[in-house]
Amino acid sequence: MLRSCCLLLIAFGCLVSFGSPSPGSNLEKRDDNLPARVPYVFPPPGTDPIADAIRARRTNGTLLDLDGVLLNAPLIAQGEDDLFGVIRDNNTLPPAMRELFILRIAVLNNASYEWLQHESVGRMAGLTTEQLLAIRLAPPFFASQGVNLTSILGADDVFNALKTFLNDSQLVEATATAAGYSFISRFVVALNVDAKMDVPVPVPTCSFVWPCMAIRMFTTGRVRR
Fold it and tell me: If we measure between CA atoms, which residue out of 40, 26, 200, 13 comes closest to residue 119?
């Protein structure tokens, strides 16, 4: 999976071609509160220190459906919040790169819930609609190269390519991001968080016809590479 993210970084030219971060906030609540495979647990504010710690990290202090599922096992919820408080909020990766990793993992694991939570975050971090479309549509397997991009085995060529953009500390952060959100994507699918288990990952709507047509043709193999 890290290979898939790395190839997209190279295709984007990494940092130089990401759009500018979007001003303001577009992080309104993105849950539909549809049933999961376990009940949601949403303790009232001030009644549960673990839930309150999670609220402190959430937009507008609102717990997500993911949090409500995790809080069935409070210590798991606490551990998840501690880990992803670092991975999501306190690493040195460029925000757009971090969100590219997260969104690509969501695509590879068909985790529409994860995509819906992070598409707007990615846009705010500077990912363009065209880049989001490439993240969404790039195939998980390149038959011509014999490469399965869902593999968890990190080949040397992947890390050598990443070293073009990242120092050693950031290589660890990038690997932790890909691995951590792979766990989250599998978790939300397995427990059908917000009833999104069978919902396809959305395809971003592009306002510029020709660039988006080119991306669609390239990622679906309809043009010679």
Answer: 26
Helix (DSSP H) and strand (DSSP E) numbers for the chain:
10, 2
- Domains, the chain, ranges and CATH? 1-13+35-225 (1.20.1290.10)
Residues 6+ apart with CB under 8 A from 26: 120, 123, 124
Give the integer Cα–Cα distance in Å for 11 and 3: 12
* Orientation of helix 168-190 relative to helix 74-89, angle to 10°: 140
Which pairs with CB-CB distance under 8 Å and at least 24 residues apart come from 208-216?
A: 208/129, 208/130, 211/130, 212/129, 212/130, 212/133, 215/130, 215/133, 215/134, 215/137, 216/133, 216/137
Alpha carbon distance 72, 121 (integer Å)? 27
Tell me how far apart the alpha carbons of residues 42 and 64 are, in angstroms, rounded to a whole number.
Answer: 9
- Other residues' Cβ atoms within 10 Å of the Cβ of residue 79: 13
The backbone region for 201, taken as left when phi is positive above 0, alpha when psi lies in -120 to 50, beta otherwise, is beta
Structure confidence by residue, pLDDT tens digits, 49-100: 999 999 999 988 999 999 999 999 999 999 999 999 999 989 999 999 999 9
Q: 128 is written with which tokens? A: 């363009």
Give the Cβ contact number of residue 214 at 10 Å: 13
pLDDT tens, residue by residue, 169-189: 999 999 999 999 999 999 999
pTM for this entry: 0.80
